[in-house]
Amino acid sequence: MFNLILNENMKIYRRVSTWMMIVLLLAAVLGFSFLIKNQMERENEADWKSRIAASTEGLKKALAAEPNLPKQSRDRMEKMIAINEYRLENDIPPATPKSVWGFMDFSSNLVSLITLFTIILAGGIVASEFTWGTIKLLLIRPVSRAKILLSKYLSTLLFSLFLLFLLFLSSFLVGILFFGTGGLSVPYLAYWNGKVVEVNMALHVLSLYGLSSVDLLMMSTFAFMISTIFRNNSLAIGLSIFLMFTGSTIVAALSRYGWVKYILFANTDLRQYFDGTPLVEGMTLSFSITVLLAYFLIFHLLSWILFMKRDVAA
């Protein structure tokens, strides 16, 4: 099994496209740092208290002016008010993007870029073997089809983990280089069980990257399934990228229907249970995890059944 995974990784890192992805990811991190540094040079960060106070006052007025706000919107605004008031009372400045943790928080948006790169890899890692005819060379080896399929999937996950580690490390180093080490001890404020709690910022950033990786895992698994079933990398990549960019929009458009909570894309953003409000009232973290596990198992089951039974002699 180890040799199969090693062989797949050798094929992955021999490609010029793989190194282009790595360079593009590092370039994006540097681009973010230049963008933040140039756009925020004129901001007066010392005046954060007045900005937080003004924001809190605006939220309170909005709540008073709109007594019939949807419960989810009201809950979200009340959480923001509670966090702002706690911040002011305890003199805890917000972590702006012009700090190490703030920049890493901001750079976590690049996980979507990693998702895109992993979809491209996953969409072709099986289909390309059929396209090039090399699948026959793999199947004549004295190993089972299940191990071959598993090695390809694990290699895809290892590639995504490598890019995640690269993003985390590069954003930390670039953050220190451009913004210094100030604010490393500032805690993150979260609203949990009806009260504001202080969370270590390093743990918050790690959890943010972890939660952002849920969509990465599900979309790469979906692309892998389409690649395995239809043996068409263009279909696998194109359909996965389309759903990646439109999935949340489709769910938002259907949010008034209760059954939307069973759609995959309504559950991939687990941050809604920590820093926001659930998309549909009644949704819970355990419910979303259960739905995700169900989709995950279905994707793998379909891939395994069809790959095991497919005739590749023709």
Please, could you describe this protein's structure?
The protein is mostly helical and 314 residues long. The protein contains twelve helices and two strands. The chain starts with a helix and ends in a 5-residue tail after the last helix. The model has no long low-confidence stretch (mean pLDDT 85).
Write the layout of secondary structure elements.
Elements: H1 2-13, H2 16-39, H3 48-65, H4 71-89, H5 100-107, H6 111-125, H7 127-132, H8 135-139, H9 145-179, E1 188-192, E2 195-199, H10 201-230, H11 233-253, H12 285-309
Antiparallel strand pairs: 1-2
Helix pairs in contact: 1-9, 2-9, 3-4, 5-9, 6-9, 6-10, 6-11, 9-10, 10-11, 10-12
What general form does the structure show? globular
Number of helices: 12
Q: Helix content range of the residues, please?
A: 55-70%
Overall structural class, as computed from helix and strand content, comes to: mainly alpha
What is the N-to-C order of secondary-structure elements (H for helix, E for strand)? HHHHHHHHHEEHHH
> Ranges with pLDDT <50 over ≥5 residues?
none
Q: State the end-to-end CA separation.
A: 27 Å
Total strands: the figure is 2
Mean of the pLDDT scores? 85
Radius of gyration: 23 Å
Tell me the major beta sheet: 2 strands, antiparallel
Approximate strand percentage: under 5%
Cross-sheet strand order for the largest sheet: 1-2
